Amino acid sequence: MSGWADYVKNMMDNADAIKQGAIIGKTDGSLWGKLPDNFAITTDECTALSKAFTDLNGVPATGVTVAGTKYIVPRVDENLIFGKAGTKGVFATSTNQTIIVALFEGQSSEAAQARTAIESTADYLKQSNY
């Protein structure tokens, strides 16, 4: 493991609730790194996430699909998408050049842990001009 997957690993190490994660290109949705290797995020899903960040206000109406699971999006914040599907959830946030995706399992405390980890990763990448 090297490169972008290291950032995903660090994010996952900081939140036990995060089970899968990825970093994709913000402008084109290209996959830069993911963990674990069998994380089934598709090219189409990456592209859709990239497009979602061009119109965040429209995301709650459509939701997001990641690794074949459709997530209801009850809210978006500045540069952050939060989705739920039962006891599973997704956070996606953007930096200047990337979109970071984290799939987590659990309820409120796990969601808070996952959000903190993904936002910390985003802050680091922003400080590194990504």
From TrEMBL:
Pfam families the UniProt entry points to: Profilin
Domain of life the protein comes from: Bacteria
The species this protein was found in: Streptantibioticus ferralitis
Listed transmembrane segments: none
Protein name: Profilin
High-level lineage: Bacteria, Bacillati, Actinomycetota, Actinomycetes, Kitasatosporales
Family: Belongs to the profilin family.
